[in-house]
Amino acid sequence: MIELLFLLLPVAAGYGWIMGKNSAKNQAHQLNRQITSEYSKGLKFLLDREEDQGLEHLINLLEVAADSVEHYSTLATMFRRRGELDRAIKIHELLLKHPSLDEQQAASSRLELAEDYIMAGLLDGAEEHLVWLVKAGYKEALEPIINLYSQTREWDKGINMYEAHSELFTKPQHVKAIANFYCEAALQDNDTQIMRKAISLNHKAIRPLYELGHSAFTKEDYVKAIYYWRELISQFTFFAPVFIEELAMSYDKLNLTHQFHDLLNELLEKGGVLIKIKHCQALLEQGHIEQAIKFLTDSLKRHPTIRGFSFLLQLLAKQNNDIKDVLDQIDKLVTSYIATKPDFQCQHCGFTSHTIYWVCPSCKHWETIVPSRGIDGF
Ligand SMILES: [Zn+2]
């Protein structure tokens, strides 16, 4: 009898194990059924257009299915895209309060919530969350907060943020934005000292040099204008069309035109067609028309451009008096064609315009609008 009991012990243990396993399985099964049922209820509400109740149900599910944070974020993004910002905000606010979120998930939800607020025009709310993220070292918050301060024209806030957290500014476009914030603040307070700070930033920006040159030029301080613009044209030769006339004039005012010609010679290799045209004009002033025609013809063979062709027509008209009228007529046509082409283009989004914008009206990036390039460009 005792032997029989011993024999039955493993059977009893096995039975207990199997029953226990089934019970755990049953519990999990029950939980799954509960989640599925809540999901179904939530979806049914949504389908019945009782969206508030549907959302409420789905959000309540977070209590039992915390691993589905991603799904809720996707849902919120969908609502935001559809312009249903109150719903997107509600989901992100609830997500942010949820204790099961890890640090990264909480930061992403906070960032998304700030984006909802921006779209809803609730800029103060957005700023609060973005500032929190920047202070916590999240670089992802830099772009939206820079855009926000650009929109509200709160240059000082942007500058203070940069000065307190400059280590986060590793992307050139963010540093360029701050350089422009310094320029805007300087223009607002009429204080070029502030602008000079922008020159020493770790990524070179176009605008501080341009504005400092421009400010000196308007004060007829041509030595200073040349100092800043020479630096600018050497570093950002493609930007020459914006100020080359004033730069030439500054040299002229100081009777240093020959130095301007030397500068053009230095820039011929990396400069666009405008530098080449200016070089030809210099040759023309010195009476070397044939040399100018040869230089431009050779250059156009390698890099054909409409503006270069137009100037070649003008040079040929000067040299060939008998066909001057015909050449002038062709040049008129070419010039009208050029006038239809945009002078500036955003390198980030492709936005085109006839005037320079420091911040792109379309993509909101700073200093991405530059003089047009290519066959129709400079
Ligand atoms: Zn753009």
From TrEMBL:
Record bears the keyword Metal-binding: yes
InterPro entries: Rubredoxin_2, TPR-like_helical_dom_sf
Domain of life where this protein originates: Bacteria
Entry GO MF terms: metal ion binding
Keyword Metal-binding part of the UniProt annotation: yes
Chain ranges of the LapB rubredoxin metal binding domain: 344-371
Pfam families: Zn_ribbon_LapB
Keyword vocabulary terms for this entry: Metal-binding
Name of this chain's protein: Lipopolysaccharide assembly protein LapB
Annotated organism of origin: Pseudoalteromonas lipolytica
Name of the gene this protein is made from: lapB
